[in-house]
Amino acid sequence: MESEQDIVHALAEAVRHRSEGNYSAALEHAVQARLLLTGSGSATEADTAEALAAVLLMEGGLRRHLGDLPQAATTLNEALTLSERAGATIEGARLTLSVLGELAAVHRTDGDYDQAERLLRAAIARARRLPGPEPPELASLLNELAVTFKYSGRFPEAEQLYHQVLELLERALLPHQLDLAAVHHNLGGLAHARGDFAAAEPHARRSLALSERALGADHPVTAADRAALAAILDALGRHEEAEALLIQALKVFTRVYGDDHPEVAVTCNNLAAIAYRRGDLARAEQLYRRSLAVKGHTLGSVHPELAPTLNNLALLKEDQGDRAEAAALYHRALAILEGAVSPDHPVLATCRANYAALQGARRGRDS
């Protein structure tokens, strides 16, 4: 078939660009490969269905990285239909596991933690039923479930799963360095969320070292590790070091994703916090509002990830004496979080405490 070489070339280019962190270019080549495959006239055959599912898996993952969650979900659901059709083989079954894991990541990124958990539990059960040794996809699925638990505030369950993943990776003859980096990144993030910043730093540093060695300094995965370490250092009071790391990360994120992406929003939020502590309230407010605008546009107006920035901006508005806006911001954050995360989630607890303190101060002035 004349187009076979074109398909192979498009896939090779997609893989190359993805490994270099050039997600937009990788997506163009993945879409090209998909169009060539669907135009080959044999997409209904089992082997072609499996190949097309693999291409759609890559395309969906790239769309998720680039922040296009609706199209990522559509693409991955199509991949799931095809991979299920090809699932009579071990390779087809493992492909289905990868598709389910990526689709769960889309739902988790979109704030639908319940659906992410449902997909992951189904995939993990399938992985454990496969004959032979534990498939490598199992570690990835358990890691994604732990991330989902962390975001929803189920910290003990997340920690237990992360350590299971480390055990699985250690049992492998040659664990992938990026898999290890991901788990240490996540363990650092979990310790950071719990407020145990000293325990978080070694995990964050190891993750950064592993990803930098494997991918280079200018890859978006490395930038995400750099930003995570910066947040921990900032919490430890090393604000200048943290700010330098965040500025480096933001340059990579804007180059790869543009200005309108959740990674850009989170980095702006963290830079705002540093400006706030330094007393530069105007700069802090500008960065907080930029973060909120990007999060709202890319994730939606009721996504749980808006709440930390709403809380931070509310504190700033209190300092500026604008208690009415501060109260409105706290109220919005609480409306987003209640029912979406566990009742003891630290961000929810912080928002409640800050809102109660503001209300108490108001009553004290009025009495």
How are the SSEs ordered, and which strands pair?
Blueprint: H1 4-19, H2 23-38, H3 46-65, H4 69-85, H5 90-109, H6 113-129, H7 136-152, H8 155-171, H9 177-194, H10 197-215, H11 220-235, H12 239-257, H13 262-278, H14 281-299, H15 306-319, H16 323-337, H17 346-366
Helix pairs in contact: 1-2, 2-3, 3-4, 3-5, 4-5, 5-6, 5-7, 6-7, 7-8, 7-9, 8-9, 9-10, 9-11, 10-11, 11-12, 11-13, 12-13, 13-14, 14-15, 15-16, 15-17, 16-17
InterPro entries: Kinesin_light (IPR002151), TPR-like_helical_dom_sf (IPR011990), TPR_rpt (IPR019734)
Subcellular location: Cytoplasm, Cytoskeleton
Keywords: Coiled coil, Cytoplasm, Cytoskeleton, Microtubule, Motor protein, Repeat, TPR repeat
